[in-house]
Structures are given as C-alpha cells and as structure tokens.
Amino acid sequence: MTTKIPQPPGIPLLGNIFDVDPSNTWVSLQKLWEKYGEIFKITVLGHQIVFVGSVALCEELCDEKRFRKFVGGPIIEIRNAVHASLFTAFADEPIWDVHHRILAPRLTPNAIADHFVEVRDCAAELTAKWRGMSPGSVVPAIGELNRLDLETTTLCFYGRKLNNFTGPEHPMIKAMDGSTGEAMKRPTRPKLMNWLFYQSRFQQDCKAMRQYAAECLEYRKTHPTDRKDMLYTMMNAKDPETGKSLDEQQIIDEIVTMPIGSSTAPCVIATAIYYMLQNPSCITKAREEIDSVVGEGEFTHDHLDNLPYCAGIVRETLRLSAAAPGFNIEPLPETKGPVMIGGGKYQIPAKQTVIIVLHGVNRDPAVFAEPEAFKPERMMGDAFESLPQGAKKWFGNGKRVCIGRHYAWMWNLVTLVTLLKDVDFEMNDSGYQLRQDGWFNLRPVGFEIKVQPRAQ
C-alpha cells in the first residue's frame, strides 16, 4: 500500500495557482515544505508537479540509472536568450555533448587554478574600494558582490576588464535578473498574456545579455591575445569526437550562460556574511586560520587546501542558503509507470516532473542535527565526508551537474578569505533577519552592511 502524496487544497480549474507566489516561487515552496515535509505536489492549470525535500529521496532521484535532468518550465523560457546551451539543452539534443566536450577541459580544477590570481585580485579590488570609503559606509551586500562576480567571470573566461566596481551597474546584471525572473513567471501565465503584456521587456533583457556577449567576442577579435582561456576555446577548439566547432551564435549562447550560472556565487557570500555576523565566533575562528596560514604574505592558490574552517563556512552557507535553490528530475523516457520511490512508499507517474527543493533537503533533520544552526564544523573533515551524497547536491547532479562548480567553489572561497582578511563589516540594521528572493538563485533581500578596513 502506497502513501498518498500530500497536496494543499486547490480551486477548480486553477488548482494550486495561489499557493505559489510567482514573484517569489522558491520561498513559497519553502513554506509548503515546512508544512508537508519530504514530498508534496501541486497542480497548476491542470499540470501536476511533485516536489521532494529530504536527503533520502533526493539521493534516490539522483540515480541516473532511473532518472535524468528535466528541461522544462523556466529553463525552456530562458532558451530565448541562450538556445541549446550547456544549461538549457534537452537531453536528446546531441549539441549538448559537443559543447560539453569542447568546454569541460577549461573548467577542470587544474584549469581553474590558472585563474586564481585574477579571482584574488578582483576580490582585492572590491576590498580596496571598501577600505577607501569613509569608516562605517553602508553598502548593499548582494549588489556589491554581483558586481564582483560579473567582473571576475568576464575577466577569467573572456579576458575583458569591465571596471564595474564603481559607477552605474553593468546592464548585464539587470538583464540577467529581469530575464530569469520573467522566465520563472511565464509558465504560470496564459501564453497570450505573456505575449501581450510581458514579451517586449523579456526580449529587451534577452537582447541586452546577448549584447554583452557580442561585445566580449568583438573585444577579443579587436584585441588579439595569447590567452588560452574559455573564449579562446569557444572560438578555436573542435569536438574531439565529431570535429565540430561552435559557430558565432553558439559562442554567444555560452558566453551568456556562464554569468547566469555564476550568479549564485554572490548569493552564497552575501549570505555567509549574514550568518557570520549572527555567529561572530565564526569570524574569529576563520581569521585565526587565515592569519596562521596566509599571514602577512601573498595569498596564493597553495593556501586554499589549508583553510578547512573557511571551506566549512562556504559549505555550511551552501547548505543553509540554497543559493542554487533546486533542480528538475524526470524518470528516464523508457520507464513504464508507475514509478515507486521511497522504498515503495510513494508512487509517481512515468512522465512526472519532480523538483528537488534544496531548502528542505539541506535541512533534513534525519541528517542534520539542529538543521537551522550555522555550524561550519559539520562541513569539515570526517563529518563532511560521512554525509550522504544526497546532502551534497548544491551544484546539481550527474551528467548535468553544474559545469562551472570548480570555478564557483574557488570564487566563493577566495572571496570569503579576502573579505575576512581585509575588512571589518557589521549589519547596518542590527535587527535584520534573513529574507530571500530570487529566480535561478536565492539571494538575501535588503541586507546592507557597514564596511571599514580591518582593525589590526
């Protein structure tokens, strides 16, 4: 006997359309997880979606012998900007394999290590800006880190300095937010409404992102270089199996895709600042480690493996922030339904979309004692290694795992260390409590910090 998957009461025809706020979808799903637990479902305009929020079910659904990534909903909508890119290609589109074989060698840990100095120096530019401001100056955490993320990604992958730490925010940042936000909302509306009222703005944002990419490509053409970076690979490498290369529009697709993917990283560090300020002993421990390992000398890539507490802060923030809030799964197409999950406890159709809600998975009380507590120690050494694989899915899973995960990890760790090493920060509003929103990421809302040079 299977257990019925819980569902909030709906209304005729529209189903549960009012149970999910399209302006803050992931927070709505967090609330449903808090009410219903490890699995629940909703129906919107006749379409059923199942959500999972436990480590055990997440791990089961990540078995690629039974399930695969589902490309649908908002991911289909963002294809308007990036077409069949590494992030958005359907499972049966062979172009994904071609792009992956061409680009993956530039994103291995060893290849990413070549960009350490650029990542470090960009982070140091931000802290130099902060240290040069009047003591106690107030900055928006996510806004400043978004600038750093785009600056670093554009330099490391495309060899171009935007110099975007001051002055108006680069149009790419606003366009990414606008396009991904609209992509999340479009599946919840009738197509005619999207076309009549929202299509123009969506197209403008998609065009602005592609304009950023075209400018990166044109800059490389007019400023030849010996750099063997991601853009060089996009422009020159051939797939070792088919001999195919990327055409110019495909290059633009992938140039746009990388910053969309990396936009979760500033969410992680902004949220890490919040949790550290809520737990000041973590700042003390991290700085003791940094001062012992890095000291007054130059911060180098060799130091990274010797900063386990700082790494624990990043992992614990990945857990609690769910900065990349979830991913979509479906049974393999040859599956004959129904599909049993949870050791036969639950039953889903063979063509069912399932969304992993990482806010719930990462707070599973069966795995994490005091799941809401910020404890970097649980993400270090044997404690981290002994966690189930289903508790470590911050970057997705399997074949379609985030291709930029090694870059994101280095960016997060280097940025965290640089901030702690160089500056002091405190909440502008001492009573602030974490609020999140976002689209393809989850970020802190209204979180401002006061910054000044670190007291020695």
Overview of this structure, please?
There is one protein chain. The chain has helices spanning 25-36, 55-61, 74-82, 95-103, 109-113, 116-131, 141-158, 171-185, 191-222, 230-236, 248-262, 264-278, 280-293, 308-321, 358-361, 381-385, 405-422, and strands at residues 39-44, 47-52, 67-69, 137-140, 326-331, 339-341, 346-348, 354-357, 423-427, 436-437, 443-444, 448-453. With 456 residues, it is of the alpha+beta class. The strands form 4 sheets. The protein has a 5-stranded mixed sheet. Strands 4-12-9 form a 3-stranded antiparallel sheet. A two-stranded antiparallel sheet has the order 6-7. The chain starts with 24 loop residues before the first helix and ends with a strand. Helix 6 (116-131) runs parallel beside helix 17 (405-422).
List the helices and strands and how they pair.
Elements: H1 25-36, E1 39-44, E2 47-52, H2 55-61, E3 67-69, H3 74-82, H4 95-103, H5 109-113, H6 116-131, E4 137-140, H7 141-158, H8 171-185, H9 191-222, H10 230-236, H11 248-262, H12 264-278, H13 280-293, H14 308-321, E5 326-331, E6 339-341, E7 346-348, E8 354-357, H15 358-361, H16 381-385, H17 405-422, E9 423-427, E10 436-437, E11 443-444, E12 448-453
Parallel strand pairs: 2-8
Antiparallel strand pairs: 1-2, 3-5, 4-12, 5-8, 6-7, 9-12, 10-11
Helix pairs in contact: 3-8, 3-9, 6-7, 6-17, 7-11, 7-12, 8-9, 9-11, 12-14, 12-17, 13-14
